[in-house]
What we know:
The complex is a heterodimer. By secondary structure, chain A is an all-beta fold. Helices cover 0% and strands 50% of the residues of chain A. Chain A has no helices and eleven strands. In chain A, β9 (87-94) and β10 (103-104) form a beta hairpin. Chain A is globular, with a radius of gyration of 13 Å. Chain B is mainly β. Chain B is globular, with a radius of gyration of 14 Å. The chains are: A mainly beta, B mainly beta. Chain A binds chain B through residues 31, 33, 35, 40-45, 48, 50, 56, 58, 90, 94, 96-107, and chain B through 30-31, 33, 35, 40-45, 48, 50, 87, 89, 91, 96-101, 103-106.
Amino acid sequence: xxxxxxxxxxxxxxxxxxxxVTCSQNMNxxxxxxxxxxxxxxxxxxxxxxNVEVTDKGDVPEGYKVSxxxxxxxxxxxxxxxxxxxxxYFCASSTQGLNQPQHFGDGTRLSIL
Amino acid sequence: GQNIDQPTEMTAxxxxxxxxxxxxxxxxxxGLFWYQQHAGEAPTFLSYNVLDGLEEKGxxxxxxxxxxGYSYLLLKELQMKDSASYLCAVRPAGGGATNKLIFGTxxxxxxxx
Lengths: 113, 113
């Protein structure tokens, strides 16, 4: 089954404790992206990757890091999480092409205390 | 700047027709997507428009007017399961991230019996 898989689905942690949210897709997609979704603000792009070893900042990259060592994986790293990073996070992937929709993972709800 | 506007909330009756509007101002235009998102779940792709006119897909149709920066999603024969948020997203032109999407804040549709 074609899918984007995120882990964990839920996490409660404390300020300053490094964490990684994994994202994996099995569709051989070139493009992958991370979003955060907050009430009243919609989906905002954090980082994206056009292909292996090619990553770039989105609209709200502060406090986050990513890597793309393999085509299928695109982990999101919070080196020193803070309470303002409490949010619902989505990973998405798509093949190249202007008419290609992005396929989303089920989301990760992070609470930073 | 980039801006996408949608109504925050709408209410409609089961069996009826509802139209959800979206207006946008972006740096160039490479298409407009509509996504459906049930509470706590991943957004799922509904439709894509790049040329002016109406695209019909079962009970759902989407319309685009590029000159007016305007789109709408039309849902016919509403069912209770259509209660969800509907996200309008625009693919801007230019830059290297041709797969980038800019999302509106979404319209929360409540279908009542």
